[in-house]
Amino acid sequence: MAVKPVLVTGGAGFIGSNLVDTLLSDGERVVVVDNLSRPGSVRNAEWLSRRHGERVAIERVDVGDEPTMRRLVGGSRAVYHMAAQVAVTTSIVDPVLDFETNLQGTFNILEAARRSEPPPPVLFTSTNKVYGGLDDIPVELDGERYVLTGTPAGVGEDRPLDFHSPYGCSKGAADQYVRDYGRVFGVPAVVLRMSCVYGRRQWGTEDQGWVAHFGRALLKNAPITIYGDGFQVRDILWVDDLVAAMRCAVAAAVGATPRIYNIGGGPDNAVSVREVVDRLAALIGVNPKLVLNDWRPGDQRVYVTDTRRINEELGWRPSVAVEEGLVRLLEWLREAEGTKAMRPSPRIGTGRGRGSRAAAGASS
């Protein structure tokens, strides 16, 4: 019997397309499920088809299509479930869509896995937003970044859940369903609660994918809008490091108890929004023009991942430092958008210019 393919929902998205490319390059057969609604998803799907031909099957379908999900999950040896509504702002405007995609869609995947024999391992990509605004954690301003004063290692998996938005609710409820389908029904299950991921094939927008969005704006020398003061900190993670962790987690899931891991760049890769802008601007050779706007609801002043559990249990650690990752990102953006290389600036800009709003923000 032929080996069953791997199923990747959201496989034409940013993270999904990188995962799919890696799986196919290693000889796997892959079925991609994607409704192609996200910016850049059609381009990513076309890229995968050109690169890998018939070894990738792309199903333009929504995870809300329960009969199709039952068929596809049942015919798969592993499921990477990344199809999602990904923006806090969208969840506030349209909470029904957010619920139907993130929670009902995940439930459809889990039910299909439960009814399969044997059930395939399911990896679900959750979010740091399940921890809410982290308002009780002491934070201090140190120069141009906030720092955690009581938890230097970062936020661990024992942190209480506090969803704080429809998006947090839908993703948080889904990740609890994934864990309990493992505990109750024996579905091999793993949840990754992700910090900010960046890299190739990220067509960043104002609401999601802020590192790439900043890069795209700066390559055009366009102004950037920042929500809040720009001193908020995230531990950013290069996408190839995430893909390596995902594959390792799925390989370890069969026969194991369901696991939840926080994953991100960790303290060594923690940077403020302004620092990312300044580093990108210096690499490109422009002076950034920033416009400040109001804080977004539930925005965390600092989110840094405590990666010790995934370090210890899976032996995973990030390998790409921020400086190297930003260079790689700009190289890809220039190639993808036909932008000519700019002469590097001799110094990092102040990030305090003025201009009309062009869009950018950091909500995760």
Can you offer a commentary on this structure?
This protein is an alpha/beta fold. Helix content is 38%, strand content 17%. It contains eleven helices and 16 strands. The chain has helices at 14-25, 41-52, 66-74, 88-93, 95-114, 166-185, 210-219, 239-253, 273-284, 308-314, 322-337; strands at residues 6-9, 30-33, 56-59, 78-81, 122-127, 139-142, 145-148, 189-194, 197-198, 224-227, 233-235, 237-238, 259-263, 270-272, 290-293, 302-303. The protein has a seven-stranded parallel β-sheet, with helices on both faces. A three-stranded mixed β-sheet has the order 14-11-16. Helix 3 (66-74) runs parallel beside helix 5 and helix 7 packs across helix 11. The longest helix is centred in the first third of the chain and has 20 residues, at 95-114. It is globular.
Descriptive tags:
single chain; 364 residues; alpha/beta; seven-stranded parallel β-sheet; three-stranded mixed β-sheet; 11 helices; globular; disordered C terminus
How do the strands and helices of this protein lay out in sequence?
Elements (H helix, E strand, L loop, with lengths): L5 E4 L4 H12 L4 E4 L7 H12 L3 E4 L6 H9 L3 E4 L6 H6 L1 H20 L7 E6 L11 E4 L2 E4 L17 H20 L3 E6 L2 E2 L11 H10 L4 E4 L5 E3 L1 E2 H15 L5 E5 L6 E3 H12 L5 E4 L8 E2 L4 H7 L7 H16 L27
Parallel strand pairs: 1-2, 1-4, 2-3, 4-5, 5-8, 8-13, 9-12, 10-15, 11-16
Antiparallel strand pairs: 6-7, 11-14
Helix pairs in contact: 1-2, 1-8, 3-5, 5-6, 7-9, 7-11, 9-11
